[in-house]
Structure formats: structure tokens, C-alpha cells
Design brief:
The complex is a heterodimer of chains A (115) and B (287). Chain A has 115 residues and is mainly α. Chain A contains 5 helices and no strands. Chain A has a single domain, classed as Cytochrome c-like domain (Cytochrome Bc1 Complex, Chain D, domain 2, Orthogonal Bundle). Helices cover 45% and strands 7% of the residues of chain B. In chain B, the strands form 3 sheets. Chain B has a 3-stranded mixed beta sheet with strand order 6-5-7. In chain B, strands 1-2 form a two-stranded antiparallel ribbon. Chain B is globular. Classes of the chains: A mainly alpha (115), B mainly alpha (287).
């Protein structure tokens, strides 16, 4: 089950996303910059998402966010401290551990809602 | 697709929870059960990667990802560690200024012994890794210790591992409270979250083992030291176990320790003991 997953993700999600960042049509939102910055959110280390250039699959693909998380507070809470929802998670508690400011998390939420 | 991944994550989290619950809780008192831990540890990886043979876990990312394995088979036509291996043999055999050599410091003259390191030294009451033993041998013979992590140390490791290929890890934990404490200390280091990003070693090498983190496939913790030292293309050179521990600590924005710090030696002791039965395959190559 686990062994097969990387291959699925690579084939289905990764390859179309290999285009360089600069070739994206729309200008980057501030939240996108924070999310992609390796010294900030570094979300691409674990998540595949539109606009990213790497097929990571430590966490699930981030897509369809508005439909799946209509409540903005829920999304904020996941990024702020996912350990509260899942004590075993490997996702860093970005807000709790002051990796990101509340404003940066809000910007990321805005960006996630475009996915 | 997303729903499916979600449920796989829940399953993985549940497995991790189960795994943790198999470990004695800190509050459950002083009972330390290395053999029981080892069974649970190996069973976890066998379940997570059905079809991967025990010895194959020595091959890290290549064992759990078909695409990586293909690249590996191509690289191995000219193994990039060959230079280090030649160097290592020469260094290992060269006599010290006093006429003795490494062979005089080790059981079986240092040939085919990698699988027994680290060991717990009952006299000094501490864990002795192969690299520490190499430097102690030098010092006993009036030579300067070698820097850990790269260079000659990695080369000598490479040669010594190569003479031990195929011999299963055979780490012993003597029934001595100090040895058990060292084991427990290494285990704690492995599972404790640290650094601003709040990762433990287990976050990446147990819970996320086999998954893709940017360009890397995260190696399963089982067997993860059996291929050391490694030539890593990313580094463009060879590296020892210390080099890997330091860089894994650094990438989670936590302060690395000094090579051969007692905590790192205990960690190596724990990880190697967890891998008992996995055959030595070093030196190895990694992307």
C-alpha cells in the first residue's frame, strides 16, 4: 500500500507540475510566497500543490480547499497546530511554535482557497 | 484520489499510534525491553512494506521505490565509492609510525567485524562505535585522531564494511543497567521531537518512511545504517554515520551535536540494535 503510493502521486500529480515557477500565468499571492519559501512554510517539502514544482507526498495533495474546508477557522487551525487534531502528525505546528505569524498563516489560507 | 490519500494518512497515523503504544510508556516505570522493542520495530516495517526482504532494507530509498531502484542499478555499474574503497584498504593496511597497524587493535584483525559495532564496553561503561574505535586505535599507537564525518575516516569505514558484507547486524545489549540506559537514551533521542519544526527522527524515518520529500524518498529506519558509509551524490563525496546524523539534525533547524557525542553513539546503538538481522551492505551509494 505505502510502497505504491509515491508512484501514483508521481505519475498522477507530479509530472504536469514540473514547469518552472516563473512560467506560471498569474502573479504569486503573498501567501504563496510564504507557503513555498523553504525558510517559512516549506509546505512543498510535504505537499503537492498547484504552482509547486515538486511531487512530495508526506502529506496529502492540497487541492479543492474551499470545497473541503469551507470553514476558514478549521484551515487556520490545521496550519497553526495540526498536533491538536492529530497528536501523531509530522506536520510542524507553524503558529504554536512561532514559525509563522498569524498574518502569514492568514495569507496562506487566502492562497489555499485559490487551489 | 484525495479521499484515498486521506484515508491512507489516517491508516498511517493509526499504525504510528499502534507502534508507539507498543513501546513502554515513560510513565510505565523503568522496564526496558530491547528485544520486545526490536520485534515491534521490525514488524512495523514488514507490515508497512510487504514484499521487501529484511536484507533489502539496507538499501534505504532503493528498497521502497521502484524508480529509484532503477537509477541505482545504473549507478552501480561504476560504484562512486570505489575510490574511497581503494583508499580505505591502503590506509587500513598502512603501518603506523610504531610499526603496528589497525589490525592489531581489532578482533579478527579488523576483517569482517562491522556487524558487531557499536558495542557496549563494560569496562568504560559506554557505547563504542567503529569510528570511535578507529580513533582510539590511532591514539593508542601515537597517531592523531582523524576527523569524523568525511575523508580518511569514511574511507577506512568503507573498507571495513566491505569485508563484512553479508554479515547480519549482531548488536548485543549486555544485561547491565548502564548498557540498558544507553539503549534507552538512544531510543529517546530517536522518538523525541526537537527543533523549531518539531520533528523526531521517527517523524521522517518511521511515520513518513518511503514517502517523497521533495527530491528524496525517506529511508525506512530499519536497516538504515547497514550501508554506511555512503557516497551521496547530493554531497558529492562520502559520509559517515555522524555526517548523516548532523545533516538530519540541521535540516530540521535543530542544533546538531558534535560527531561521536555520547547521545549520537547511543542513537547509533539503538538504531543498529533495531536492525539486527539485516546484513551489512556498505559502502553504499545514495542520490
Amino acid at each position: 500500500m505505502r510502497g505504491a503510493l509515491p508512484m501514483i502521486a508521481l505519475a498522477a500529480l507530479g509530472l504536469p507540475l514540473l514547469a518552472p515557477l516563473s512560467s506560471r500565468a498569474e502573479p504569486a499571492m503573498p501567501g504563496q510566497a510564504v507557503a513555498f519559501d523553504r525558510s517559512k512554510g516549506n509546505c512543498l517539502a510535504c505537499h503537492t500543490m498547484k504552482g509547486g514544482d515538486v511531487p512530495s507526498n508526506v502529506g496529502p495533495e492540497l487541492a479543492d480547499m474551499k470545497a473541503r474546508f469551507p470553514d476558514r477557522k478549521e484551515l487556520y487551525a490545521i496550519i497553526f497546530d495540526e498536533e491538536r487534531r492529530n497528536p501523531q502528525t509530522v506536520m510542524p505546528p507553524f503558529g504554536r511554535d512561532l514559525i509563522l505569524t498569524p498574518q502569514e498563516i492568514n495569507e496562506i489560507v487566502d492562497f489555499l482557497y485559490t487551489l | 484520489m484525495i479521499g484515498r490519500i486521506g484515508s491512507i494518512y489516517r491508516a498511517a497515523a493509526a499504525a504510528a499510534l499502534l507502534f508507539t503504544s507498543l513501546l513502554p510508556a515513560a510513565s510505565a516505570g523503568p522496564r526496558i525491553d530491547p528485544a520486545g522493542d526490536q520485534r515491534a520495530f521490525q514488524a512495523y516495517f514488514e507490515r508497512a512494506f510487504p514484499g521487501v526482504a529484511l536484507d533489502d532494507f539496507a538499501n534505504g530509498p532503493y528498497a521502497v521505490n521502484k524508480e529509484m531502484r532503477k537509477q541505482w542499478e545504473e549507478i552501480m555499474q561504476f560504484p562512486p565509492y570505489d575510490f574511497a574503497l581503494d583508499d580505505g584498504k591502503r590506509l587500513f593496511e598502512a603501518p603506523f609510525k610504531n610499526g603496528k597497524s589497525y589490525a592489531d587493535c581489532f578482533p579478527d584483525r579488523g576483517i569482517g567485524i562491522r556487524q558487531s559495532y557499536p558495542y557496549f564496553d563494560l569496562r568504560s561503561g559506554e557505547v563504542v562505535t567503529l569510528d570511535l574505535a578507529i580513533n582510539r586505535c590511532r591514539e593508542q599507537n601515537g597517531e592523531k585522531p582523524l576527523p569524523y564525518e568525511v575523508g580518511d575516516m569514511a574511507a577506512i569505514d568503507a573498507y571495513m564494511a566491505s569485508t563484512s558484507r553479508g554479515k547480519p547486524f549482531d548488536i548485543r545489549i549486555p544485561d547491565d543497567p548502564r548498557a540498558l540506559a544507553a539503549y534507552e537514551n538512544g531510543k529517546k533521542f530517536f522518538y523525541e521531537r526537537r527543533g523549531q519544526l518539531n520533528f523526531s527522527c521517527a517523524s521522517c524515518h518511521v511515520q513518513a518512511a518511503g514517502r517523497r520529500m521533495r527530491g528524496d524518498i525517506l529511508a525506512p529506519a530499519l536497516g538504515m545504517l547497514a550501508s554506511f558509509p555512503i557516497y551521496r551524490s547530493d554531497w558529492g563525496s562520502m559520509g559517515t554515520v555522524d555526517r548523516r546524523f548532523v545533516s538530519c539534525n540541521e535540516q530540521v533547524r535543530s542544533l546538531p551535536l558534535k560527531p561521536e557525542d555520547e547521545a549520537y553513539r547511543d542513537l547509533e546503538y539503538f538504531l543498529s540494535y533495531m536492525s539486527n538481522g539485516v546484513a551489512i551492505a556498505g559502502p553504499g551509494t545514495r542520490p
